[in-house]
Amino acid sequence: MDFDRIKEKLNILADAAKYDVSCSSSGSKRQNKKKGLGDSSGMGICHSYTEDGRCVSLLKILLTNHCIFDCAYCVTRKSNDIQRAAFKVQEVVDLTINFYRRNYIEGLFLSSGIFKSPDATMERLVQVAKKLRLEENFNGYIHLKSIPGASDELMHEAGLYADRLSVNIEIPTREGLKLLAPDKDRKDFLQPMNKIKNEIIKYKSERKIIKSTPKFAPAGQSTQMIVGATNETDAQVMYTAAYFYKKYQMKRVYYSGYIPVSYDARLPSIGTDVPLLRENRLYQADWLMRFYGFSIEELLNKDHPNLDSDVDPKLSWALRNLHLFPVDVNKAEKQMLARIPGLGMKSVYKILGARKYRNLNWEHLKKIGVALNRAKYFMVCNSAEWQKKDLSAMNIKSLILQNSNSKFRNTYNSQLNLFEKQDGLIQY
Amino acid sequence: MIFIYDASFEGFLSAVFTAYEYKCEQPIIVKKEKFIGNFFEEIEEVITSEEKSNRVWKKIKAKAGSRGSQQIYWAFLSELDEIENTLFQYIQHALASSKDITKDYAHPAVLKVAQTVKQVGREKHRMDAFVRFRKTKDAIYFATVEPDFNVLPLNAKHFKNRYSDQKWCIYDLKRNYGIFYDLEKVEVIQLELPASILDTSTNFFTTEEIQFQHLWKNYFDSTNIKSRKNTKLHQQHVPKRYWKYLSEKYL
Question: Where are the transmembrane segments (chain A) (predicted)?
Fold first, then answer.
């Protein structure tokens, strides 16, 4: 192995791949077989964290950053004057195996710029995965990018070797895509997505009858949207996400605050802050949809096209729906407990477990580790005291904000004036 | 009454047996190495007995289930001061109750055990993540660690499943023992390690090994996004005390 050459390529192609935020390595169920290398049947593991606090669990690289497309938001776009490089198939295989054996990574996340044609690119990605599985008996995690426009046959083969496949829609709206990536067509993204979805369903039902049916993309599909590159609303982003969760049975939709990489006049200029707070709020809304039983319409609608910046979306929803509170934690059903601001699902399960033995009071809840800062305004327990006093939504909100610290405080203080008109709380 | 035992899990279970035998309801159970003497209490030195510990373990499993017994074992591995006393109260509560007590978090011992198990589990998971193997000249993938709790017994299975085609060893420098996989089974071993084992020198490791560490460090640096810098979050996930084992941090 020529380490100097590999190092140079690795620097270029890891740097180019880092804007894809997915790092998940869970959900695969692929076990070690025949005393081979690797196992991805357990939970995902983050082996390290970058200085920006993101998890490093996979070797995330591009096969090449040569690209025939010129998408304005992408650092690898054709017109960008940057160093280009390309890995050979065997080099990626060797890197993956050697990193994996040293317990640096859970597996490989391989993406690529589109060189020559979508099929030529996809074929090369599939070759890497195939070699890892068949020649190296590698059972670690493999995430492959579905290249927009790749043929159904190649996508089928990809699904046989990869644990997860993803194709990034990047721009949430049709108009935005037209503006920023004129060479790309929405249906080119959707075709491989659709193929994979149908195959997953087919293989799953076949496995019910024939147990030896091979796995097909056992960790499913994911996609990513850039936020803040066009002037889309939170509602546009989240309704698109909800559509993909439902229609394509996505395992995950990722939201990536736009990091300026271009002086293109169509985009926020270099030096503009990454919209970290907005990204955070979108993930909170995503979690509420997937794990807390909220429907998208409850969180975002015509009257509330954007999430509040100063409070989280669950608190924001609760303040708009005070008539549903307070909730009695000793009696309420799981789904209502999950709607109390400040209570995570872990706390919900702790309460459900603990209340079987005795009626819980504030002291119990505190000891169990339930965070009461927000929750106390929305619940009652086995105690005469509770924070009723007919507080208005505005009062509750200001009480909560007074007693909390957020690293985003500066961000939303400066944004508050801008957002006041959209703030759902005005009606109270 | 004070019961002194030999620091092994079987020793602890034997102490529980003995305490019950003496009908002692609030025993102090303490490791021999940690015991500093006491003039006021009666002291009993417990002899570890396989028969006694098996009987206690069987009873615990019957009453607290596999979940409860696992919680007891994991909490025991924390080696925290006085955890034995908490575990005794936990066992008392389990044996006295007619239903499963593992989720009775409003009971102080159950809560303390659950919290300790969480801490131990976190440390176990960190070892799964932060172990960095270095390939020695005789082709053993070797790692040194100093976990906060005695978690290596919990890590063995994970590493055996994953690295079943390579010899590996994870060595706990703090407790001076390691687990070694010889392509067949995992064994506990004790080694005399030179102090310089922490340096990656070509005395022990292949030159290729050192190249791969540098490649990994390079990868780690290239994948960082500077405009999203968040040092607090970074250190929360990778506390400084682990840095000396992570080539991406110390190189």
Answer: none
